[in-house]
Amino acid sequence: MMKLSNATLDDLPAGIERPRYDRSQLTPGIVHIGLGNFHRAHQAWYLHRLMQQGEALDWAIIGAGVRPYDEAQRLKLVEQDYLTTLIELDPAGVSAEVVGSMIGYVPIVEGHGPLIAQMSDPAIRIVALTVTEGGYYLDPATKSFDVDHPDIAHDAAHPHTPRTAFGAIVAALRARRDAGVGAFACQSCDNLPGNGQRLKEVVVTLARLSDPELADWIEARASFPNSMVDCIVPATGERELARVRKMGVEDNAPVTHENFRQWVIEDDFCAGRPDWDRVGATFSDQVHDFEAMKLRLLNGGHQIIAAPAEVLSIDTIAETMAHPRIRAMFRKVATDEIVPQVHPVPGMTPAAYVDLIEVRFSNPEIHDTVRRVAFDGSSRHSGAVLPVIRDALAAGTPVEGLALSQALWARMCEGTREDGTQIVPNDPVWDDLQDFARQVRETPLAWLNLRQIYGTLGENEVFAKAFDGWLRMIWSDGVEAALDAYLDR
C-alpha cells in the first residue's frame, strides 16, 4: 500500500494518472472556502487539467473552512500534501487520477484571522465558495438575505473577528482597500439561482451594516460572476476508502464522481482568471438558462425521487431509479410538468437533458445515497422545486406530480419509513419539520402553512387541492399506491 504524498507520486500504481507539473513551482491565486468532495472533483479538477498543460501555475488553490468540523478534513489533506485521488465511476470502466492543484489549507480558528490574512494577500485574485444552498443566510420563503440571523448580527458588530465566510470576505476586502490593493472576484460554486448575484447581495449588505463606504468600494471594485456547476459526487465512506485501497493507494480523503462534468461561467473576473474554457468549461452570458435547466431538472429531480425512496427504505439513487414506479414518476413529472418551464440552451434541449439525467441517475457504479441527496430538503425544495410550481401555476400547466412531490416530502419529514424504521434527522430544521408533519397528519393542508418555505403557495386552490389529496392517499394507501395513481392519470 502506497501512502499518497509528494514523495510517492512517482511510485503510484500503473494506470493512475498523476500530476505532470512540478508542484513545488505552484503559487496561489485562489482561496476556496468549503473544500468538500464536490470542489475537489470539479473546480480543482478543471484547474489541475490546465496545469497538466503547463498553464495556470500561478493559480493554485488554498483551501479554507469556517466551521470547527472542517479542521478534520484539513488535517487529512495536510498529511498527504493536499493531494486527492479522484476515481471516475464510468459503467464502462473505472479510472483514477491524482489531482495536485491545491497547495495549502488555512488553519481554522475563531475569528478567522489566518483566512482573512490569506485572502488579503495580493496574489489571491479569486475567492470561491462551495457552502451549499443553505449556507447563504437567505430567508427560505423570500430568498432575501436574513440580516437578523445571529451570525450575521455578530459579524456586523464585530467585523474584525467574524463567524461567517462572508464576514471573513468583507474583512479581507477591507484590508485590501486599506492597503491600496485591488479587490478579488467572489465566485459562488453552489447550486443557487443567480449564485453570483446572491453572493454579491450577501457580501455587500453585510459590509454596509458596519462600513457603508467599504460596501460602495466592494460594489465598484469586486466582481461576482454567476455560474452553473454540475457533477454527481457521492460522500466518501468505507466503500470509497476500500476502493482506493484496492487500487494500491492509501488516501484518507479520496473522491468518487460520475463520468460527467459541466461548468458554465459568466466571464466577470475583476482580477483575471484561469483559462478554464481550454479544458471544457464554458464562458457564457446565458448562465441563467443553463442554471435553470440544471436546477429544475437535475436538482429538482433529485428531490422528487429522494423522498419516496427514503420512505420506501431505498439506499441509493441508482437503486431508486431501478424502482419502476419512482423512475416512471420522475420521467412523467420531468417531461410533463418541468420541461415546459425550462428554456433550451446551446447544444441541449430540455427533453434531451431529461434523457441525460435519467442515465446519470441510473449509473450503478455511483453509490450516491438517498440520504445525501435528501439532506436539507427545506432549502433544496425551496430552491429547485417550488419555483417550478409557481411558474407552472402561472402558466396554467399541470402540477399534479409536483404537488405529489411535496406530499411525499411531507410524509418523509414525519420521520418514519413504511417498514417502521426511523429516518435519522436530515435537515437543519428537522425537529421542527418532524413535529409539524406529525401534528398535521390528519389535516394535510396545514403543512402548506409553513410560509417560511411555501410562501403563499398554499393559497392557490389548484395546488392545495392536489397536495391535500396526495398526502391523504399516501397516509391511507401508501407511497406506491399514490405513485400508481399518478402514473395512471
UniProtKB/TrEMBL annotation:
Record flagged with keyword Kinase: no
Protein name: Mannitol dehydrogenase
Native organism taxonomy: Bacteria, Pseudomonadati, Pseudomonadota, Alphaproteobacteria, Rhodobacterales
Keyword annotations: Oxidoreductase
GO molecular function: oxidoreductase activity, acting on the CH-OH group of donors, NAD or NADP as acceptor
Organism: Pseudooceanicola atlanticus
InterPro entries: 6-PGluconate_DH-like_C_sf, 6PGD_dom2, Mannitol_DH, Mannitol_DH/Oxidoreductase, Mannitol_DH_C, Mannitol_DH_N, NAD(P)-bd_dom_sf
Residue ranges constituting the Mannitol dehydrogenase N-terminal domain according to the UniProt record: 29-277
Pfam families named among the record's database cross-references: Mannitol_dh (PF01232), Mannitol_dh_C (PF08125)
Residues of the Mannitol dehydrogenase C-terminal domain: 287-468
